[in-house]
Amino acid sequence: MSGRIFHAPFISAHPGFELRAVVERHEKKASLRYPGIVSYDQTNELLNDHQIELVIINTPNNTHFDLAKQALKAGKHVLIEKPIAAASAEVKELYDLGRQVYRQVMVYQNRRWDSDFLSVKKIIESGRLGDLIEVHFRFDRYKPALSPKLFKETKDLEANGLVYDLGPHLTDQAISLFGRPLRFEKTAATHRQGSEVADYFNYHLSYPYQLNVYLTSGLLIAEPLPSFIVHGALGSYIKSRCDVQEAQLDHSISPTDSGYGLEPEGSEGKLVTMGLDNHKSTEYIASERGQYMQLFEAVYHTIRDHALYPVTEEHIAWQIELLEA
Q1: What CA–CA distance (Å, rounded) separates 21 from 34?
Q2: 218-231 pLDDT, tens per residue?
């Protein structure tokens, strides 16, 4: 799913890339949509292809670290699906190895380019809320059945459970806006029948100037709450999770389509500001277009122009510190 939806359409559409090859161990499906693509049976076959400069690793979480090491040692740049690894020591090892072999290590944190998050970021950076007081980011789902993807549900495999599944999205969004917290508290719990791994978590991140940020996700949330709530001294902003990119890509809508990434009408965020004499004003703010292509544009310039990839090594180190706690 990850390769079909989140990666191949962008590599294919971006003029700076050529979609060269894929590893398909079982069913050979990629050529149906991308004629001429090379389909390898084994990873080592792809890594031995000297025409390949960049390898995207979108395999089960517990394999990311080892496969990224193999790709770097084979002389490839790597774009690694979140989470990059299970532990901070592994993160350091990968970035150190990248420097040793003069190859780029990049992590796929696509939710920075969600339309809803871009809306929240724009409002915060505008200063219209004043000094921030309290921020809530949520990723709610109702999925009582255990996932057929065993790497998510097996306690004996590293980087399992909801913390390592949706946790990287929420922690990265918070870190991209506010940086490393001064301190944090983490709560994790297991509620689904038969589950071995955490299916609920909450982080309380404490920042300078008494800013409190709360990150929450659960798999038994029947009525999702607004995904983004930001309170400041001058107002509040409330936004639901409305990004359409994953659904559009799943229906084979191209990233170059004129309607790609546009939220439907009625999805606007609610901005409430307080003026003189406590006069309350309410506005409804339409989101920017969601655009995962910006991530691949950043990958391209990082490799070709040695630009700084926006999801930095420090960001990822801080993220894994939160996840593994």
Answers
A1: 10
A2: 999 999 999 999 99
Going along the chain from its start, the domains and CATH numbers come out as: 2-108 (3.40.50.720), 111-324 (3.30.360.10)
- Residue 130 φ/ψ, nearest 5 degrees: 75, -160
Query: What does the CA dihedral 232, 226, 3, 264 come to, rounded to 10 degrees?
Result: -100
State the pLDDT at residue 302.
Answer: 98
DSSP letter string, 182-251: SEEEEEEE--STT--S--EEEEEEEEGGGEEEEEEEESB-SSPPPSEEEEETTEEEEE-----HHHHHHT
Percent of the residues in the chain that have a pLDDT greater than 90, as a whole number:
97
pLDDT, tens only, 38-90? 999 999 999 999 999 999 999 999 999 999 999 999 999 999 999 999 999 99
Q: Could you write out the DSSP letters of every residue in 244-302?
A: -HHHHHHTT--TTSTTTTPPPTT-PEEEEEE-GGG-EEEEEEPPPPP-THHHHHHHHHH
pLDDT at 277 over 90: no
Query: What is the residue-averaged pLDDT of the chain?
Result: 97
Cα 130 to Cα 123, 229, 234: the distances in Å are: 10, 14, 5
Q: Which residues pair with 135 in a beta bridge?
A: 213, 230
DSSP notation for 47-115 = HT-TT--EEEE-S-GGGHHHHHHHHHHTT-EEEEESPS-SSHHHHHHHHHHHHHHT--EEEE-GGGG-H
Partners of 213 in beta bridges: 135, 205
Length of the chain: 325
pLDDT of residue 159: 96
Contact 23, 42 (CB under 8 A): yes
